[in-house]
């Protein structure tokens, strides 16, 4: 990862070191490791990971690993430390107070913006992990469609359980709790998967695998039974809108312009599209770039999602989401089919 660049940044800004505590994603970013308990000290010269003695030691390049003994704080005390970088988005008040006790006279400087910036553009190795997470996600969708055809499930929870089991069988974890929403439940974009029975109508599946800490995010909608003309039209319109956004991806284009393209395509229905068109993705499911930030533009090797939706409260909801990458051309990483699958 960009540890070397970050060290340059510390030097340029006169910081003696930066201090990150688990579960700060910045710690996982620089180590590519998810500990049970750890603190990472990045100095201009050396980087040390104080790691719980209960964890297996990872093999890390250019990072010393020290066991987190009871007195580990004493080992790092130093009167010469004057400025310490912290991540205000992750450091708790308690962790900040502990840091103060170690370095009572140092100034704490927020480096969260620098971290967000560094994490946006992915390295080849990060992109490989994200692609793999997307492949697992796509094949999980194909597997769940087969099971739905066999009528294997009674409830939303049954479907989610099968999907999460399938993801885990691929040596991955889940990026977030799987959303399975039957019928009117899908009108709530962040529906909590429930014991609701499957019945006739749209079934929305929003889920993602997490492979070596890197996330995928995908939403597909299938139809249980036979859709009527209006339902088919609504799905068709949303799919067209999503495809229009994918076709409009171009280097340097602001994300809010993509959003505008979709709203135009949805026409009168755009008032039912109640969230942002997408988000950056990586170590976290939702990370920079933020689409509503006017400064943010499409860049090479910055993966993001495209997920238009329409929600009719009390009736049904639809969303079609892909994780995509622009690297000179647009690559849709989540390759599961999008034509409406009807399961009779
Ligand atoms: Mn998403």
List keywords for this structure.
Creatine Amidinohydrolase; 6-stranded mixed sheet; 2 domains; alpha+beta; 344 residues; Creatine Amidinohydrolase, Chain A, domain 1; elongated; 20 strands; 33% helix
Can you walk me through this structure?
Helix 6 (about 125-150) packs across helix 7. The protein is built from nine helices and 20 strands. The relative contact order is 0.12. Helix content is about 35%, strand content about 25%. It has two domains: about 5-120, Creatinase/prolidase N-terminal domain (Creatine Amidinohydrolase, Chain A, domain 1); about 125-344, Alpha-Beta Complex (Creatine Amidinohydrolase). The protein has about 350 residues and is an alpha+beta fold. It has a six-stranded mixed beta sheet. The protein binds manganese (II) ion.
User: Please, how many helices?
Assistant: 9
Helix-strand pattern = HEHEEEHEHEHHHEEEEEEHHEEEEEEEE
Main sheet record: 6 strands, mixed
CATH architecture of the largest domain: Alpha-Beta Complex
Q: What is the terminal separation in angstroms?
A: 48 Å
Task: Look at the structure and give the mean pLDDT.
Answer: 97
Query: Which percent bin holds the helix content?
Result: 25-40%
Total domain modules: 2
**Structural category:** alpha+beta
Strands, helices and their partners?
Elements: H1 3-12, E1 17-21, H2 25-31, E2 38-43, E3 47-51, E4 64-67, H3 72-76, E5 83-86, H4 93-102, E6 107-110, H5 112-120, H6 124-149, H7 156-169, E7 173-174, E8 179-182, E9 201-207, E10 209-211, E11 214-215, E12 218-224, H8 229-247, H9 255-266, E13 279-280, E14 287-290, E15 304-306, E16 309-312, E17 316-319, E18 322-326, E19 330-332, E20 341-343
Parallel strand pairs: 1-5, 3-4, 5-6, 12-20
Antiparallel strand pairs: 1-2, 2-3, 7-10, 8-9, 9-12, 10-11, 13-14, 15-18, 16-17, 18-19
Helix pairs in contact: 6-7, 8-9
This protein binds manganese (II) ion (MN).
């Amino acid at each position: 990862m960009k540890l070397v660049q970050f060290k340059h940044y510390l030097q340029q800004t006169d910081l003696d070191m930066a201090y990150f505590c688990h579960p700060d994603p910045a710690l996982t970013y620089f180590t590519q490791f998810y500990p049970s308990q750890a603190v990472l000290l990045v100095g201009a010269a050396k980087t040390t990971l104080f790691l719980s003695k209960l964890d297996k030691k990872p093999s890390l390049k250019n990072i010393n690993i020290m066991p987190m003994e009871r007195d580990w704080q004493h080992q790092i005390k130093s009167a010469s430390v004057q400025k310490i970088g912290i991540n205000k988005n992750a450091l708790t008040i308690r962790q900040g107070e502990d840091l103060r006790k170690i370095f009572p006279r140092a100034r704490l400087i927020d480096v969260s913006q620098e971290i967000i910036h560094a994490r946006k553009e992915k390295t080849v190795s990060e992109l490989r992990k994200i692609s793999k997470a997307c492949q697992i996600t796509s094949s999980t969708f194909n597997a769940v469609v087969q099971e739905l055809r066999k009528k294997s499930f009674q409830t939303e929870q049954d479907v989610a359980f099968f999907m999460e089991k399938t993801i885990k069988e691929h040596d991955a974890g889940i990026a977030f709790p799987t959303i399975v929403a039957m019928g009117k439940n899908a009108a709530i974009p962040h529906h909590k998967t429930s014991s609701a029975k499957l019945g006739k109508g749209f079934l929305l599946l929003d889920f993602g695998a997490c492979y070596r800490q890197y996330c995928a995010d995908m939403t597909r909608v299938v139809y249980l039974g036979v859709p009527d003309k209006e339902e088919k039209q609504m799905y068709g319109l949303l799919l067209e809108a999503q495809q229009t956004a994918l076709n409009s991806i171009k280097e340097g284009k602001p994300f809010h312009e993509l959003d505008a393209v979709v709203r135009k395509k949805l026409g009168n229905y755009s008032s039912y599209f109640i969230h942002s068109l997408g988000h950056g993705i990586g170590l976290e499911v939702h990370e920079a770039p933020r689409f509503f930030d006017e400064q943010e533009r499409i860049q090479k090797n910055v993966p993001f999602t495209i997920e238009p939706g329409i929600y009719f409260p009390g009736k049904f909801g639809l969303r079609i989401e892909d994780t995509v990458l622009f690297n000179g051309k647009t690559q849709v990483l989540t390759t599961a089919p999008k034509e409406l699958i009807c399961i009779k």
